[in-house]
Amino acid sequence: MASVLVVEDDGTIGDVVASSLRSHGYAVELARTGAAALEAARGRGFDLVLLDLGLPDLDGVEVCRRLRQHLPAAVIVMLTARRAEMDVVVGLDAGADDYLTKPVRLHELLARIRAHLRRAGPPAAPSVVQLGDLSLDVGGRRVLVQGRELALRSKEFDLLARLAREPDTAVSRETLMADVWDEHWHGPTRTLDVHVASLRRRIASCGGARVPRITTLRGHGYRLEHPDRTPGDAAAEGRSGAPG
Ligand code: CA
After folding, report:
1. Where does CATH 1.10.10.10 sit in the chain?
2. Where in the chain is the domain with CATH 3.40.50.2300?
3. pTM passes above 0.85
């Protein structure tokens, strides 16, 4: 049974979400404050956290950052009334994997949770993909660069793993959104660009190593360049005649 920590100070919303999740078979713990959420996360593990950003005691983004330290493998979904893009970027940088804006529709929330937990689950055949000095352990959900672990957020890992499935091949935005996020995703695909940007930053932080590069294909999507390929092997940049 998957376990979910619901962090919501609004009594009605918290109760409705918690009871709906319970009726769908999840083990649910409800925290009304940021402090209660952090205490719950110290006490036990959770597969997924639903985190309201507007909390009475602590800043939601800060709570997210600290939850991420206690629950490195959990999926964190932020619930926010704030639509401003900066809030989204800050939230994702703080370690959230996804966000939903209020008012939350329950069926959408449940679909998102199902999709996240399905993707976070153990893959059938663990495998390691070697890309130059970067080794992607799909089964262990770890990335090593020259033997040292590169910390990635859950969605960054999924994105890298998806691109690495087909190195040097163009992958459309639609395919990435469907495979890494949710086939029912109707939100802004800006989320994809934010994750690609932060994934690039993290990979680039491994200075000096032979690591894959993510190339933007304008009007189409992205392509992961294998670092061991000679430049002539790769398709010319910007060749993006595919629809989309
Ligand atoms: Ca609130």
Report:
1. 128-238
2. 3-120
3. no
- Is 114 in a helix, a strand, or coil? helix
Tell how far the Cα of 49 is from the centroid of ligand 1, in angstroms: 15
CA distance 21 to 28: 7
Ligand 1 midpoint to CA 43 (Å): 23
Hey, what are 154's tokens?
Answer: 């859950």
pLDDT in tens, 177-191: 878 886 566 666 788
Distance (Å) from CA 8 to ligand 1 centroid: 6
Ligand 1 center–CA 52 separation, angstroms: 6
DSSP assignment, residue 232?
G
Residues with CB under 5 A from ligand 1 (ion): 9, 52, 54
CA of 125 to the centre of ligand 1 (A): 41
CA of 58 to the centre of ligand 1 (A): 11
Q: Are 156 and 202 in contact (CB under 8 A)?
A: yes
Query: Does 56 sit behind a cis peptide bond, omega within 30 degrees of 0 on the bond before it?
Result: no
For residue 211, which of 157, 146, 159, 163 has the smallest C-alpha distance? 146
Q: What is the pLDDT of residues 105-155, one digit of tens each?
A: 899 999 999 989 887 765 444 478 889 999 998 878 899 999 899 999 999
Architecture field, domain 128-238: Orthogonal Bundle (1.10)
Instruction: Give the CATH number of domain 3-120.
Output: 3.40.50.2300
| Residues facing 135 on adjacent strands | 130, 144
